[in-house]
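Researcher: Please translate sequence to structure tokens.
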Amino acid sequence: MGRDLTPKCKQCRRAGEKLMLKGSKCSTQKCPMVSKNYPPGIHGSKLGRSRKLSDYAVQLKEKQKAKKQYRLLEKQFSLIFEKAKSKKGDIGVNLLTLLEIRLDNTVFRLGFASSRDEARQIVNHGLITINDRKVDIPSYRVKEGDIIKIKDTKRNKKKVKNLGEELKKYETPGWLNLDIKNLEGKVLHMPDIAETQTNISSQMIVEFYSKK
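Model: Translation complete:
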């Protein structure tokens, strides 16, 4: 599967806000958004963020931000949008729900990984089980009642050893329940907009696709 190889910090600077792509570094003074809060490129510091964008440009920027935040390529994101459009209810709400219930995002939301990229790697490497069955597909959609767990046989790995202590300071979103002792989480219900912990305007994305 293809990947976006653009440096993560440049992606944040292009979006004009922190997308939390590099885990804990994003919350420190080392984050380039602190010292270089302007678009990348030789003219970035001169242009700043003062340019007025058209409605279409604002909507495109919002779509690009969501795509980068959830670490998806254009085709993947478009397919998820089409799925959201085919479901009953508000398209924007459906879109955010489908993005949130991806397994890689769920692993990230449970605190098992510091970023979605790391969560995807954990899933790809077979460290995760759902209802005691190994699932190594990042795009797998979790369901209400699913138990997501780090495999017992993988707990001696470097990434997992100190996870219990780190999770004591972590607050999971309301649609998930975390059992720190057993390193497992449960999907209590499907997430709603208030629980997505995201700064994405799904309505702008719906408006963007309506013009295509």
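Researcher: Any highlights?
Model: The beta strands are 128-130, 133-134, 147-150, 176-179, 184-187.
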